[in-house]
Amino acid sequence: MDQARADVCVVGAGFAGLAAARRLDRAGREVVVVEAGDRVGGRVWNRELPDGTVVSAGGTWLGKGQERMFQLCRELGLRVYPQYERGDHLLSLDGVHRRYRGGIPAAGPRTLMALGLALARLNLMARRLPADAPWRARSARSWDARTLGQWIADPRNVPTAEARTLLGSTMHLLFCADPAEVSLLGALTLARGGGGFGYYTDSRRTETHLVDGGAPELARRMAGQLGDRVHLSSPVERISDDGTGVTVVSDRLTVRARRVIVAAPPVLAGRIVFDPPLPAACGHLLRRVVPGAIIRVHTVYPEPFWREQDLSGQTLAPRSPVPLTIDQTPPSGRPGVLSSYAFSTGALRMGRLDAAERREIWLDALAERFGPRARHPAHYLETDWSAQQWSLGGMIGHFPPGTLTTYGPALRAPVGRIHWASTESATHMHGLMEGAVRSGERAAQETLTALSTGRLSVS
Fold this sequence. Notes:
The protein is of the alpha/beta class and 459 residues long. It contains 16 helices and 22 strands.
């Protein structure tokens, strides 16, 4: 087994871990990154199609307010280009296709008013949360005892059935989980970090740009700056803190360091054996922040034919097995790439089908919205994030009822020489690539402060 020494060992080479390692390296600290998978990026992933087209199959879009991601693209020489938005969006509900433009779906005025009031109520509640400690809010316990689904189902909150359907569908795709599984307080915590639910539910704010070459190319270039200090295919099995330093053990490498930053998704961090054991609150928290289910399909056509129909490619069909589509065509305009999704319980149902049946249902759903040409892609690529060993779901972990008020203080608190980073722990842009980067940089700064003020040395 190989041995390494460092000031800091970073566990995980997603955006959180790479951002932490980069900040430490720039501060002149020796750093080693240990990654379980055979690639960097974590929950971002570039996949290549038979014709050489590369598609981003995980985190893909950048949006307003994501300054760190845009800055990293500039620093590392990556161009960003605007999301295609010309043409009409489609809302498909009860067998009727309704065209619209902008961020407001083509629902009736009563439905739109109900949606607007519901989102305003949720945003008002979110603003009452302390950004770094939502569990301290005056109503935190009552909100954490309810699910987001219960809140949406109450006609006093969302007065019309159609508005409840639309809002419920939006929350399904936002958390990749049934709102009945998500704490209301947990949902408000996400909204608090983005300035309200409007940020996360309006594609004109969250999905304004793509990275030329894909967001995973940014992760690859960040890792390239660290060179051979990034070790792949090395899942960490054990982290020991013996009072003088930490020992991080994988099946291929043992790292002795002064501090460690665990930047893996909480569900995976919870599988590591810690010696001594983590405090009960921290251990329970890691096991409770669970990812939802998402299947993403890229269908590739010679050209984006939907644009000929004056369609943007963005559709929402709440009752379809494939509720969401969006145009992911490269800036050259060819080939035409349509990205489509099944979320939450719908993804679980689709995942139980055999591949041929799932493909048939999927293409039927696309053809219903875009016509018969959608049924005959040149390439069809599925990515089931629940089947990925080093993510177990996507795209963020959510907080079930009771989690934040019981275990929340452990979310970012260091345990001895162990620090934590992940998009789930971000206080700003929680759940996005931006949040992951910010969490990594925050953990790196914590670690630098500890190294500069402490008297620990690697023995």
